């Protein structure tokens, strides 16, 4: 693999216009993404129904976790993919950039999502307060995986 593919660009410095309006755009991107995940959950439930019949009911045990499985696959493949953003983030003109300059991969995107769910379940709605007081509008789960969310048109 070439260096250009592995290291697309470094995160912009604090105070850059790349962070202007990021928090409000992230909230809107969240709503768009979870609407898409809810739509994707329906065909996944139908497929799981038929797989459950074929496995004599064994696959039915996955139903309680199906929404989370769909969400992890969705974010892992989109944020960890070439665009480095979910469709909701792309709609809002956002992109995820790792602070070490490497590309976001499937596992890192899945961990980012899991940490988001964890902190959101404990700190809702206070989870967004961290972004108000940080220079690059980073949230707690962004700090832990070493990522920033930036406006795509500014990079």
From TrEMBL:
Signal sequence interval, chain numbering:
none
What keywords appear on the UniProt entry?
Cell membrane, Membrane, Transmembrane, Transmembrane helix
Chief place of localization: membrane
How this chain sits in the membrane, per its record, is: Multi-pass membrane protein
InterPro entries in the record:
Pra-immunoreactive, RDD
Q: Where in the cell is it found?
A: Cell membrane
Query: Where in this chain does the record put each RDD domain?
Result: 23-145
Q: Name one Pfam family in it.
A: RDD
Where are the bilayer-spanning segments?
34-59, 65-85, 106-133
* Record's protein name: RDD family membrane protein YckC
**Species for this entry:** Martelella mangrovi
